Amino acid sequence: MPVVKLVLAYDGSRYAGWQVQPNGPSIQAEVERALSALHKAPRRVTAAGRTDAGVHARGQVCSFPEEIPLPLAAYSKGMNALLPEDVAVLGASLEPDGFDARRSARGKRYRYRIESRGTRHPLSRAFAWQIFRPLDPAAMADAARRLTGRRDFAAFQAADCDSHHAVRDLGRLDVLPGGETIEVVAEATAFVKHMVRNLVGTLVEVGLGRRPPAWAEEVLLSLDRKRAGPTAPAHGLTLDEVFY
Amino acid sequence: MPVVKLVLAYDGSRYAGWQVQPNGPSIQAEVERALSALHKAPRRVTAAGRTDAGVHARGQVCSFPEEIPLPLAAYSKGMNALLPEDVAVLGASLEPDGFDARRSARGKRYRYRIESRGTRHPLSRAFAWQIFRPLDPAAMADAARRLTGRRDFAAFQAADCDSHHAVRDLGRLDVLPGGETIEVVAEATAFVKHMVRNLVGTLVEVGLGRRPPAWAEEVLLSLDRKRAGPTAPAHGLTLDEVFY
User: Fold this and answer.
1) DSSP collapsed to 3 states, A182-204
2) Which residues make Cβ contacts (< 8 Å) with residue A151, sequence separation at least 6?
3) Are A69 and A95 in contact (CB under 8 A)?
4) Any idea of the CA torsion for B147, B151, B152, B155, to the nearest 10 degrees?
């Protein structure tokens, strides 16, 4: 059976996360409502990653098998007419039988935006963690280099993460300085829950000068969640791309 | 009397514009409310530019004379605690007697963001004019070069603009391509009402291939508002900086 693959972008600000849940609106529910309206029958989708409440996406991917798919324009233009303004389909394609947005993914890239200036800034308030003290991006980059590779990320795993283990291959953890803005780009085959936000919280401790860069690796090696920095706020995080 | 100068940033989405007016909330009213609370007495401010409804700022400037100014931190940290989250003071300074945010300004820079892709995009919906067809930035840049200098911009002036004449010195009108995003940067000693939005609307006609680059100069020379392109939507425009 052919599989429909959708690339999605969303502003996660007003959602309780990707996944359908009782305590608030979810992006998944919006997508399934629009798809079901198009097909005039219920449809369920699988997503590459279940983004947390408040997390954004410019390249989330979801998929569902469909015996006789609609013309692809129905999944882009048609969906975009039905979805709320904070969710959109950027592209639609057909994949062979067996494709699954989650299981077929080879990796994902997340982007975390930090801003450092003396005051809050209204224009990026929904898309960046605004920190009112100076950060040292070189120290953050030094710390980040110590965390890449195939490692056990238990120290950066949310307490309620349901993964059996936390060994992941973090191929890239780059700290990109740009004046008042610092972007952290993380690429891995897979992530444990809150991994990027916990890594960013730890890098920021180093950037603020509270800890030396070597401390980040001590945290990693400790496998102890209590030693890592605070979880960075969700609204700075964007799921950038999923690789297949 | 010393003059307090404030540099402001705001997300103009939910405002009827800078200026206090009967038909909706204004940024000026928010700023004056916060200032009056700080001073425990009414305060009125003058701004460098009266931005339209929906227009944003990252460098608006306002000022007011003050016999005995508060410590500057009161105008930054103090104001930011009182202002709504879509308005902020980025900096405060004291200027000599006679300074006025509007009359003392030597020039202003605006930035207009256009995005061109096949679909709408939720993450920039409040800050860019999203156009669902391809644009030719080279043709737009060609047209823009024909519009700079000291010229009569009557063709790009809003019908209800109360300026006596429309001669302005447009020092810079750059079209900066960046993949799916095109930024138009306009710098002038002063602007007539809707000038940047009318210039952008005209450049977009050229970018869409509906008109050749030379047409933009024909519009300028005609002095006829009816010949220009449509007024570009307000939410793509940001007042970037005011020069003194």
Assistant:
1) EEEEEEECCCCCCHHHHHHHHHH
2) A167, A168, A170, A220
3) no
4) 0
Residue B51, min C-alpha distance to chain A (Å): 15
Which three-class secondary structure state does DSSP give residue A237?
Answer: strand
User: Can you give the length of chain A in residues?
Assistant: 244
Q: Check A122 against B86: CB less than 8 A apart.
A: yes
In order of start, what are the domains of chain A with their CATH numbers?
3-95 (3.30.70.580), 107-243 (3.30.70.660)
Residues 6+ away with beta carbon under 8 Å from B72: B92, B93, B94
Contacts of A238 in chain B (CB under 8 A): 123
Q: Residue B7 forms beta bridges with which residues?
A: B61, B91
Q: Residue B9 and residue A121: Cβ atoms within 8 Å?
A: yes
| Nearest CB to B80 within list A85, A90, A119 | A119
User: How big is the CA angle at A167 (ends A161 and A169), to the nearest 5 degrees?
Assistant: 115
Query: Which residues have C-beta within 8 Å of that of residue B178, sequence separation ≥ 6?
Result: none
d(CA A116, CA A111): 16
Cβ pair B122:A9 closer than 8 A:
yes
pLDDT by residue (tens digit) across A35-85? 999 999 999 999 999 999 999 999 999 999 999 999 999 999 999 999 999
ipTM, 2 decimals?
0.89
Q: Which residues of A are catalytic?
A: 52
- pTM over 0.90, yes/no: yes
Strand partners, A176: A183
Identify whether the C-beta of residue A127 lies closer than 8 Å to the C-beta of residue A113: yes
| Strand intervals (E) in B11-105 | 46-47, 56-65, 87-95
CA pair distance A114, A135, nearest whole angstrom = 10
Q: Which residue of B has its CA nearest to A123?
A: B11
For residue A198, what are the CA distances in angstroms to A59, A128, B191?
21, 15, 47
Per residue in B20-78, pLDDT tens? Answer: 888 889 999 999 999 999 999 999 999 999 999 999 999 999 999 999 999 999 999 99
Tokens of B223: 């002095």
Closest CA to A196 of A162, A229, A164, A242: A229
CA A193 – CA A212 distance, rounded (Å): 25
**Identity of the residue in A88, A118, A119 whose CB atom sits nearest the CB atom of B121:** A88
